[in-house]
């Protein structure tokens, strides 16, 4: 009877609840990192290539930190590593705002620190979610997670965007000073999130080998999915900021555009997470991919203020819908394969990150290649469309993966 009403808050353990609340607080940081750091670089350099360099530095730091984290988990408490990941995002922004000019070296250093932040945060978070949730509760976990992320993705850009606009001055010192104020607030929020996280109890992974190069055929399908997901991530984080600054030239408009359709999407995510079941994940995943393709299609066809607004609308739906299906698919496969192959769960988390990195690198290089051979406009217009089309292959791959996973589960029974 209980299952017919979906999964509820009471189905989570105390540690899972603490992790969810921690992520809720840290969710106020992510939109600032995703959007306004890129817009800060654009405002002070007017060079999309520098935005992409910063993004490449981040993406290079992430897998390296995943690898180092595997060794650190045998020596350092996972709570400290997860907290350090959150705190480093504030440190990276401090480094960025302290630069006298937006130089390539400065961007690389700030990007690598942010990459280390994300690496520590996501590698440990993935493991913590895996160990504190069950397959039954993961749809709801990611429903809550995407709900928080989407709501903060609305509120934070509006508040920060209009705060920055009100600080504009002819010499630009006013708006840059407000960027610095935002950085200080981000740092304080990361400290609060870290304090909350320490209220939970978490076990570290077993001290086992975690670096492997050969995996089951089902995991190879997961790596194909991670590669395609990485292609989009290669510049999807910075693309909205670059498009908004191109067509609107205002952080205020940037913040407002982020709110279009997002609140509706947030509540849809919450309901999807609560009432959807594992068997619905492929359908949800497919809808997310189609929305992403439509976002890229409207941007490529129109490439105007209207195109950007439509792009943002479909993207705000696509990203959380994809996450609510993708991560539970990944974690369920890790559950199954770690038992079947008798390996440390972190081995799969690490390997998955390298699949993402290859995709991110090629996604970013697609943008830079089009910008170099053609123009920035061509890159902003068509790189997304190319990647959005390729992403549709994920539907077929996910279907094959889930079929192989079921066969594997039957084999283990």
UniProtKB/TrEMBL annotation:
The keyword Iron-sulfur does not apply. InterPro entries: MFS, MFS_trans_sf, Sugar_transport-like. Pfam families: MFS_1. The chain crosses the membrane at residues 20-41, 53-74, 81-98, 104-122, 142-165, 177-202, 223-247, 253-272, 284-303, 309-333, 354-373, 379-398. One of its GO terms (molecular function) is transmembrane transporter activity. It comes from the Bacteria. Keywords: Membrane, Transmembrane, Transmembrane helix. This is MFS transporter, YQGE family, putative transporter. It comes from Pseudozobellia thermophila.
